[in-house]
Write the structure tokens for this entry.
Amino acid sequence: MTNIQEVQREIVNEFTLFDDWMERYNYLIELSKDLPVIDAKYKKNDYLIRGCQSKVWLNAEYKDHKIILTADSDAIITKGIIALLIRVLSNRTPQEIINADLKFIDEIGLKQNLSPTRANGLLSMIKQIKLYAIAYDAKEKKN
Amino acid sequence: MTNIQEVQREIVNEFTLFDDWMERYNYLIELSKDLPVIDAKYKKNDYLIRGCQSKVWLNAEYKDHKIILTADSDAIITKGIIALLIRVLSNRTPQEIINADLKFIDEIGLKQNLSPTRANGLLSMIKQIKLYAIAYDAKEKKN
Amino acid sequence: MSFDIDKIRNDFPVLGEKVYNKQLIYFDNGATTQKPSPVIEIINKYHSKLNSSIHRGVHFLSDQATNDYEDARKKVAEFINAEKSSEIIFTSGSTGSINMLAFSFGEKFVSEGDEIIITEMEHHANIVPWQMLCERKKAKLKIIPFNDEGILQTESLSTLITEKTKLVSVIHISNTLGTINPIKNIIEIAHRQSIPVMIDAAQSIQHLSVDVQELDCDFLVFSGHKAYGPTGIGILYGKEKWLENLPPYQGGGDMVDIVTFENTTYNEVPFKFEAGTTNYIGAIGMAEALRYIESIGLENIGKYETELMHYATKKLKETGIVTIYGNAPEKASILSFLIDGVHMADAGMMFDKLGIAVRVGTHCAQTVMQHFNIDGTVRASMSMYNTKEEIDYLCQTIHQVKAMLS
Amino acid sequence: MSFDIDKIRNDFPVLGEKVYNKQLIYFDNGATTQKPSPVIEIINKYHSKLNSSIHRGVHFLSDQATNDYEDARKKVAEFINAEKSSEIIFTSGSTGSINMLAFSFGEKFVSEGDEIIITEMEHHANIVPWQMLCERKKAKLKIIPFNDEGILQTESLSTLITEKTKLVSVIHISNTLGTINPIKNIIEIAHRQSIPVMIDAAQSIQHLSVDVQELDCDFLVFSGHKAYGPTGIGILYGKEKWLENLPPYQGGGDMVDIVTFENTTYNEVPFKFEAGTTNYIGAIGMAEALRYIESIGLENIGKYETELMHYATKKLKETGIVTIYGNAPEKASILSFLIDGVHMADAGMMFDKLGIAVRVGTHCAQTVMQHFNIDGTVRASMSMYNTKEEIDYLCQTIHQVKAMLS
Ligand SMILES: Cc1ncc(COP(=O)(O)O)c(C=O)c1O
Ligand SMILES: Cc1ncc(COP(=O)(O)O)c(C=O)c1O
């Protein structure tokens, strides 16, 4: 499996194909459709990452020393971005996630979506994923 | 006796002789020395017009339908300006004072001293003189 | 006077900017308006030639700044037809004004069991300060509801008022629904029971003529930055008889008379309420903005903005895929809507990239959203410098957004 | 780094102005400082190209303004070496900051019989808010005295502190006496009894390096406009552990999480303390001013200003007709004095007409005047752009004033 760096490079390459924002969004919309549906039981407030404008539900499971992420959002473009995040971060070890530098977000022009303005939960989502990773990492070391 | 307008014109004429501010101040300092000394019994807090930077004491008496003003200040230039005010406003009827438009202050460049910045009591002093005039006028009409 | 839209647009340099290579369309005027050149220039001039602290100085610059600051106060008084300029208090903004009033009025007049009445369509700025006061004083907040059209149910006010009611505080124009509330009527009803009324004019001062004496409101607040002026400055108007009786809000320089450790006495109104170095450059900039409004004519502005609103409403409806929230007959140029089946956040992101600045979310009016049981809306709020062409482009874009997102 | 006074003076356009046909000499920096070109320009740029309300927008301009605003917060944090930028709250000024703290801290931690300790040399901004709090809560204000040299009697602090003491609030540099107080020592003494300390850094932030972590102060305040930045903006720094525990001060937009009429929850720190549309342009301008200070170097500035102070002190003494108030060995470039036998108001008026802007009066520190039993002083407060030549001219003028007035 390709590592986090490589996947990010892949994504950046994919996005260089697009000439304008509408194409990029179209692609994100496509990606949103492929996002594996999160188990209904996780679409509850406990799993909700609060954001002002769109809701994001996130679940993390730990299997074979790897973190498996599933998520959903009520907004489609947000969901597309989530799909990218999951492609990069899911099925990784806690250490990989902790150390991940998510440059691709900036490089494909989505940095804005992580600014404090965009209260759409993405920034909180990344924070939450990193927190999961730290927690599983600590657990691992204890065992 | 010359009326309020005429006295103001006189003062303005006197001030046109001066080339610079130091000369004007010198003249005000001279005037301050001529200000008839206010009776010591009026140099008390009751007669004090509060200002931030200099103190002004003011007394008004009513004689022969005219208001006689006496005043003092602990600051010399302020005292000089007071001398001008008294020259214009003392020994006038309440009505004259009420209607007085003290243009000379602006015309000789002392308007600043009446701005809310100059918390030296001059603005309050004029207000107080007008209040005296209104009060004596009302009393007059009642009698 | 004719309304020369090209000239007006030219007065606002930011309108010439591009974003993402698209001509900027600024429809976020409810949040903050852009600044015309005279306002930009006077601030510039102040910073470059005149800056000096006010009131306490005895030097030229300080005199000048003080005079200009006090002239600004007079300009504001004139603009809302206050009886005296001392009834105008400069604050940090509408929020600062309402908090000042809630504290000062609350300290003096509100105790356990008392009631404050607001409406269901308030901006948070006119909810939370009263909630905080009510919590501190164990008082109660009561609500005038609105109906699904966005019309305030004014008739309920007389039944809400009890002998415990201490103040009624009402938004003049809803920043979310656009509704222009019948404040004159509300003030009359409250005054019949001798209850004072505060008007939140943050969205109305730049749109229609507000005459505090004719309205007979007791307090009125608005912000500089929503009326083409700078940020960090706002107004609390209060009738003299109230201001004389309210305790100060903040303590500090300029608001005092004599300070000793044993006892401090306060300066007169309005200075009693202006502690510390005020934002005098903001105040001067704000007055310049009001002058700019006058130079165009508030009546012309209101007429033009209403025309834009009607046009936009018609056009939005014609798309056939938009739901508008707030359909009161008396409405300002604020349009809240959702594209059917499209999440507001998605719509907002697309509008942005197409050069259109709209606001998306609850617009600091969560109780309005709760009324309609929605998470938020897209809001296009239009100003004197917006055009029908811009509205046309917005409507085109709505179709594009819809096509992509569903 | 060399200190290029000509270049610095060139950066401040106002310094080239004339008043009454005389070259302006600006010695009123304790009241407010002048603005360098980068500050003027960024404000101009914001008004002309970028202006947009922050935090809630989803469009380009709003993103940009939000980022710049949050960067400004980071810059301020860096400047005072705060651990986290969330410990920086933007307020309307020092006065706003102290009032915020007095209210929020007071609501939570002060009750009947409790004590707050300040000093005899505070600015009114650090007296009146505590007096108002004490009155509301029936608490008590206690005073650390200073001696006739203007030196704080720090040794009295340990005896003033009791188990009822809730907070110590101290001016770092006296705006009247110029005294630099030993705040590190004060903080240590208070902390030994676990009492938090607030530092009023309004006069120090632009003069010497302030490191909140090294000082270990709990709160610190200062104003933008006294540190070469715009009016209407200031800072309240608070340690995270405190800010997390204090209730909000003002209610409104942005400071909330969920608003319902039944219950409102608040946003996280620092937003909890920033209600409404903040003065984001002010904040951005302030950060630019701090950057300007850094570009000159705070150490260079401090050294130069201290040199000016020593020079001015020597020269004033040499006139033989001046009494200086405030003769502490640790002193900033603030000089309060009286010309023997000359009323300060007369002196102020003459200085003004000779082009010199000084302040005359109590400098919002009436308790200092009460200490010396005087009505006020003439204050010349010097900044990095002042020169020895200006001081020479001031001293010449003093002789002239004396000659005319006595
Ligand atoms: C109706 C209304 N009231 C109050 C406010 C608060 O104004 P500010 O954020 O300028 O304090 C706003 C603006 O958001 C508003 O629209
Ligand atoms: C020491 C000190 N504290 C507080 C203040 C108040 O600052 P501001 O007026 O900017 O709120 C000042 C300025 O006058 C000051 O010198």
Chain D has 14 helices and 17 strands. The first strand of chain D starts at residue 18 and ends at 19. Chain D touches chain C through 95 residues (CB under 8 Å). The radius of gyration of chain D is 22 Å.
